[in-house]
């Protein structure tokens, strides 16, 4: 440790003293209840007054449950909680989940905190992942012998918090809950008051102030919508788990807090069950469990919970009647059973080994997929062997439908909650079915959700050998620090068309569950209904598939790349094709004069066998078969067909010729007309993104330049109100940066001499201290928690973009970095469910603490985190971050962007790095 380590100032010293005084009691408590090892660890912890050591931290967390209830330990347990909440992103729960204290204790409503006698008295419950995992895994293990399918209810696998609040006051508000109520654009003022007075708390937070008085309420009550309530809703009897109405059509033209109620009601009563649940084991294996398609009873209605409780009760000794839902032990038992090996998926066409190599060579054949041939093969298997799974059958029927869809007539598949009223278009980025209230973009929770989304998707693809790579804005964000841009609201990935098909066949309509030891993410993999269409067509299906967070509606957009007849646009920023290459392709006989025997593989059957001009003629002859907007679209498309800018190589070619030209030039495209040349993609390189392995295209710079004004320098940057500070390797809001730099020369903050774009190392420490002083808590935790990721990415950049070493040398260093440092990167964000739980717990602690105590705890924990953080930064500064005795001394290899980005980072993004 050097003098750079922050000095503990007087305030902290006092806080520490106070904490230690409290601690005397704690020590007595511990000796009485815990074994010696924990005790020694704990002592050790206080001697060094630091929450750094992992083992210490983990045993501290496990102490939390025990200390929670002992009043004198409020300060210590609050400090532990605050540390875990902000500076630990492991998916460990801070407490345990029990039948009586948790499930049977009413969380809100008229009977709040009441202990129910038995599960028969439950009229609603929160589907805590520990509860659902335990009950359903136990069911799987018990039915190992003849397992066919598992019961399913959306209620058991999603967040129904606000809906449960309504259920909790159902009895006193029975008359309020009508179809009328559900489709009002905003709450009726008196109804909301009546609900909340029974609830004794707010029903929701977002813009709740608008309902606070009649004046502000005026603004929102004036909006109108035009819903045919009779058509969209039925009155039904209310009861446990059921409000007395049934939303049969999803209508989003209401305010967000109303739409939330509608969407949840619709899910419960009218939405199909998924085909399967896929359980991930890290990034190693996927286990696919078939779901009962017809029943949507939850675990109480189906009797599964009752069975679980009875079984556990009979197993336990009489003195301990309290049942714990220890989901991890059920999970680990499940992995050991025979049923797990029966459910494990191996996709025959995929190779899991690709994630063990630096470079992944794709085959040009991966970008063409013969749909007709696949249909034939599956039909044959069905008839001969009768061995198609439900997933195979759903996929087959989708292909048979898709192959007959003319691109001009493909129905829109994905729907977003676009029409939500007074919501600033935020609904545009949420799947309509899984809207779950307005998680504000830019909030910690939103960032955590994005993090969980991409991490789980990556682990899902890795465990199946499915190839996909970062693209568009996602690839751009990866470039700087291996993390999403703070203003991002989704992710974009691309895959070869063949892998889109493999993924669709095996997992379309599966709920993908994250390994519960790593997080509580739950996602629907949803693939569109017209994936055999590979051109833009009517433009309604630019996205082929989505990986959707069912707890928020946020998603990853997935697009397949393939050969097609889409005309090649001329890119203004960067030319993907040389004039020579275009010339050569255009005079190629196979393109110029394709023989009569060459068929355009894009053309399907029926209307899909027609080109757009032929379709136009057909429409004119059969006007009654088409809707007005379809006719208009087809006419528009026919008009522009072939009329390309004079500079496009595809100009004047027939559809078949355009297809052959694209193939000849190795140009592949998505359905939104984004083109890449094959060698821009392959070989892919293995990198890390958000702490998990991720593939990136071969020519990153060219790929980015075709869409963005990528700056050539790795340097200080300002964009969208955020600044990228290369020493921090992180995006910081400009207003936070001003405070950190103390531009106002505030006496209470540290004085800083250097400027943001030439920040000196010592000033960096002062800047971070200022962030602590101004209480920029969310920023600090995001910044600290992503350090291992941003350090990794910095080193990777330094190696990849160093012109002074050969491609082979780079590969050796990258391999070493990836295999030795990569696996140690921690998640840059918390599991959203654990985050919410700890945040709510912290709120309850805040109520018990004085302002002074609270400030002391926060300061204490943050300075400790800073110590830990600064040690790593100092190691980086002193070139000893990495173990120097290994095969490659990573401290020395590559550019020195950390100390000298102004010079060394100049022009590095002007061209693609030479890495193979
Ligand atoms: C809600 O309506 C749908 C469609 O009419 C029906 O299938 C379903 O059984 C109804 N649910 C309830 C709880 O009445
Ligand atoms: C069905 O079984 C045959 C013969 O074992 C096999 O070749 C084929 O791949 C199977 N089809 C599917 C869809 O699993
Ligand atoms: C995915 O499943 C949905 C729902 O069954 C279906 O509409 C769609 O066509 C399927 N897509 C593919 C490619 O199988
Ligand atoms: C609008 C409406 O019907 N409000 C009622 C909600 O329920 C309470 C309690 O039954 C009534 O007092 C309100 O009139």
Automatic annotation (TrEMBL):
Q: Can the keyword Protein biosynthesis be found in this entry's annotation?
A: no
Q: How does it sit in the membrane?
A: Single-pass membrane protein
Q: Which UniProt keywords apply?
A: Membrane, Transmembrane, Transmembrane helix
Point out the signal peptide segment. Answer: none
GO BP term, example: N-glycan processing
Recorded GO CC terms? membrane
Pfam families cross-referenced by the UniProt entry: LicD
- Report the subcellular localization: Membrane
Task: Indicate the segments forming the LicD/FKTN/FKRP nucleotidyltransferase domain, all copies.
Answer: 463-708
Which ranges does the record mark as transmembrane?
26-44
**What InterPro entries does the record point to?**
FKTN/MNN4/W02B3.4-1 (IPR009644), LicD/FKTN/FKRP_NTP_transf (IPR007074)
The source's domain of life comes to Eukaryota
Coarsely, its chief localization is: membrane
* Full protein name: LicD/FKTN/FKRP nucleotidyltransferase domain-containing protein
């Amino acid at each position: 440790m050097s003098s750079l380590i922050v000095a503990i100032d007087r305030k902290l010293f006092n806080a520490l003293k106070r904490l230690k005084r409290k601690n005397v009691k704690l020590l007595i408590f511990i000796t009485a209840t815990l074994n010696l090892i924990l005790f020694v660890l704990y002592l050790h912890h206080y001697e060094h007054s630091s929450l750094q050591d992992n083992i210490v931290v983990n045993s501290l967390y496990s102490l939390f449950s025990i200390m929670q209830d002992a009043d004198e330990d409020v300060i210590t347990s609050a400090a532990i909680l605050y540390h875990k909440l902000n500076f630990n992103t492991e998916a460990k729960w801070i407490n345990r989940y029990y039948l009586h204290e948790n499930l049977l204790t009413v969380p809100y409503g008229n009977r709040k905190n009441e202990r129910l006698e038995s599960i028969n008295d439950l009229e609603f419950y929160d589907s805590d992942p520990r509860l659902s995992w335990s009950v359903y895994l136990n069911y799987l293990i018990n039915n190992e012998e003849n397992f066919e399918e598992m019961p399913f209810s959306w209620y058991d696998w999603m967040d129904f918090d606000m809906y449960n609040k309504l259920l909790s006051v159902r009895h006193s508000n029975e008359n309020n809950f009508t179809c009328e109520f559900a489709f009002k654009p905003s709450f009726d003022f008196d109804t909301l008051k009546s609900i909340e007075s029974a609830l004794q708390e707010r029903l929701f937070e977002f813009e709740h102030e608008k309902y606070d008085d009649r004046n502000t309420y005026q603004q929102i009550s004036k909006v109108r919508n035009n819903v045919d309530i009779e058509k969209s809703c039925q009155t039904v009897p209310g009861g446990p788990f059921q409000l007395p109405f049934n939303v049969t059509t999803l209508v989003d033209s209401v305010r967000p807090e109303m739409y939330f109620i509608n969407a949840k009601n619709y899910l419960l009563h009218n939405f199909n069950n998924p085909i399967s649940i896929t359980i991930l084991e890290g990034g190693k294996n996927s286990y696919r469990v078939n779901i009962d398609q017809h029943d949507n009873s939850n675990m109480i209605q189906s009797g599964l919970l009752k069975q679980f409780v009875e079984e556990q009760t009979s197993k336990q000794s009489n003195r301990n009647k309290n049942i714990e839902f220890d989901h991890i032990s059920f999970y680990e038992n499940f992995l050991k059973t025979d049923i797990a090996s029966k459910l494990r998926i191996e996709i025959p066409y995929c190779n899991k080994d690709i994630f063990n190599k630096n470079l992944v060579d794709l085959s040009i054949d991966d970008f063409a997929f013969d749909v007709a041939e696949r249909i034939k093969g599956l039909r044959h298997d069905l008839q001969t062997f009768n061995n198609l799974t439900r997933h195979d059958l759903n996929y087959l029927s989708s292909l048979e439908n898709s192959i007959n869809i003319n691109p001009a007539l493909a129905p829109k598949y994905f729907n977003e909650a676009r029409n939500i009223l007074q919501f600033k278009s935020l609904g545009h980025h949420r799947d309509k079915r899984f809207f779950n209230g307005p998680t504000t973009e830019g909030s910690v929770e939103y960032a955590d959700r994005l993090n969980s989304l991409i991490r789980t998707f990556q682990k899902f693809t890795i465990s199946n050998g499915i190839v996909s790579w970062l693209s568009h804005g996602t690839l751009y964000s990866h470039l700087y620090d291996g993390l999403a841009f703070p203003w991002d609201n989704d992710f974009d990935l691309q895959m070869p068309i063949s892998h889109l098909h493999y993924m669709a066949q095996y997992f379309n309509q599966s709920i993908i569950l994250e390994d519960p030891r790593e997080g509580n993410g739950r996602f629907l993999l949803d693939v569109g209904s017209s994936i055999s269409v590979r051109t833009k067509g009517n433009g309604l299906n630019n996205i082929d598939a989505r990986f959707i967070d069912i707890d928020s509606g946020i998603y990853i957009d997935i697009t397949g790349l393939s050969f097609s007849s889409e005309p090649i646009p001329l890119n203004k920023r960067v030319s993907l094709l040389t004039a020579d290459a275009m010339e050569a392709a255009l005079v190629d006989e196979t393109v110029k004069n394709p023989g009569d025997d060459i068929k355009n593989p894009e053309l399907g059957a029926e209307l899909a066998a027609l080109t757009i001009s032929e379709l136009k003629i057909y429409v004119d002859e059969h006007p009654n078969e088409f809707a007005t907007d379809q006719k208009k679209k087809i006419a528009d498309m026919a008009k522009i067909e072939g009329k390309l800018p004079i500079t496009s190589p595809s100009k004047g070619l027939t559809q078949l010729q355009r297809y052959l030209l694209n193939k000849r030039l190795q140009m592949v495209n998505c359905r939104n007309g984004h083109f890449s040349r094959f060698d821009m993609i392959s070989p892919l390189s293995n990198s890390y993104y958000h702490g998990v392995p991720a593939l990136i295209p071969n020519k990153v710079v060219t790929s980015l330049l075709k869409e963005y004004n990528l700056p050539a320098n790795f340097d200080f940057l300002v964009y969208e109100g955020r600044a990228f500070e290369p020493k921090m390797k992180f995006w910081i809001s400009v207003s936070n940066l001003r405070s950190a730099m103390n531009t106002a020369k505030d006496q209470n903050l540290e004085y800083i001499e250097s400027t943001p774009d030439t920040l000196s190392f010592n000033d960096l420490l002062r800047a971070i201290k200022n962030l602590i002083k101004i209480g920029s808590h969310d920023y600090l935790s995001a910044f600290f928690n992503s350090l291992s990721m941003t350090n990794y990415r910095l080193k990777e950049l330094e190696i990849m973009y160093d012109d002074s070493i050969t491609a082979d040398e780079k590969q050796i260093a990258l391999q070493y970095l990836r295999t030795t440092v990569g696996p140690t990167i921690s998640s840059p964000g918390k599991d959203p469910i654990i985050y919410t739980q700890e945040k709510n717990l912290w709120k309850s602690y805040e109520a018990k603490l004085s302002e002074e105590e609270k400030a002391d705890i926060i300061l204490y924990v943050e300075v400790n985190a800073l110590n830990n953080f600064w040690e790593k930064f100092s190691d980086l500064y002193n070139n000893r971050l990495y173990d120097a005795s290994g095969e490659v001394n990573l401290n020395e290899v590559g550019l020195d962007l950390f100390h000298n980005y102004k010079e060394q980072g100049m022009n590095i993004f002007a061209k693609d790095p030479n890495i193979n």
